[in-house]
Design brief:
This protein is α+β, with helices and mostly antiparallel strands and 283 residues long. The protein contains four helices and seven strands. The strands form two sheets. Strands 1, 2, 3, 6 and 7 form a five-stranded antiparallel sheet that branches. A two-stranded antiparallel ribbon has the order 4-5. The chain crosses the membrane at residues 28-47.
Length: 283
């Protein structure tokens, strides 16, 4: 703004002509109070002083140096951390290598153990088969030996039983003969037996015979039951039944041996000619 320019209702000439203010006590007290307040605020730390500015500059330099030292320390820590990471990675690689070798060793050991187990199982199987074959052969020899011994024993037993049966038969024949001789000495004897009717059962036929010359002092039932008789060359002790009527005594026997007429058989074939109306058929 140029001097002499109009300032609203005033001008520079008017301002120069204004009265100057006088310095009064009140104004002086105000200035002194302001200065005292400034000093007080500087003492309590509200307003900075020149010393504070110098101290602040010193502190800032110290802070800068400490920050630079801290940054260098951080860099050193970072380098150490990188070294630790590299060392840890190296240890991890070594550990992985060790684990890999252990795993390979386990696989090799497992394969070798399985191979050893298979070899042992094969040996055991071969030994078992060989032992089973030897045992079976020994058992067969033992069974054959025992079978031969059993056959010899059975043959001896059969021969003994046959001989024993022969002795018993001879003894019975002798006893029957003695009975027959005794009864004949006393006068009693059987007539020639005859077949009575047909067969009474399969392979069995009934025969009758009369008892003659029985002494009067002998019971007819006792003599009939005790006196033997021969059928087909074999002695028979007791009859099937004894009967008496007046002075006549007779007995009935059911003979179940050497009776081919009482066994089922086919008759001889007879030619009946051709069947009428049936080609190739003949009764």
């Amino acid at each position: 703004m140029l001097l002499g320019q109009e300032l609203g209702p005033f001008s520079w000439r008017d301002i120069r002509t204004w009265p100057r203010p006088r310095v009064t006590k009140d104004r002086l007290f105000c200035v002194v109070g302001v200065l005292v307040m400034i000093v007080l605020f500087q003492n309590i730390g509200v307003l900075p002083t020149a010393a504070d500015r110098i101290s602040l500059a010193t502190d800032r330099g110290q802070w800068k140096r400490e920050r630079e030292a801290y940054e260098r320390e951080v860099i050193r820590w970072e380098e150490e951390r990188n070294e630790h990471v590299q060392e840890r990675d190296s240890w991890q690689r070594e550990l992985d290598d060790i684990r890999k070798r252990q795993e390979e060793w386990r696989r090799e050991s497992s394969a070798e153990r399985e191979r050893w187990v298979r070899d042992r199982e094969t040996e055991v199987d071969e030994w078992t088969r060989e032992w089973e074959a030897k045992k079976a052969a020994a058992l067969d020899r033992y069974k054959e030996k025992m079978a031969g011994l059993d056959r010899r024993r059975q043959a001896e037993r059969d021969a003994f039983d046959k001989e024993k049966a022969g002795w018993a038969l001879e003894r019975k024949e002798e006893e029957r003969h003695k009975k027959e001789v005794e009864w004949k000495r006393r006068g009693a004897h059987w007539s020639e037996p005859w077949g009575s009717g047909g067969c009474v059962a399969y392979g069995t036929r009934a025969y009758n015979a009369d008892l003659f010359d029985l002494p009067k002092d002998v019971n007819w039932l006792e003599a009939c039951s005790d006196m033997p008789i021969k059928f087909h060359g074999q002695w028979v002790d007791q009859p099937y039944k004894c009967e008496n009527k007046g002075k006549k005594t007779w007995a009935t026997w059911h003979i179940d041996f050497s009776e081919p007429q009482c066994v089922t058989y086919w008759d001889t074939l007879k030619d009946m000619g051709c069947s009428p109306g049936q080609s190739g058929m003949k009764p």
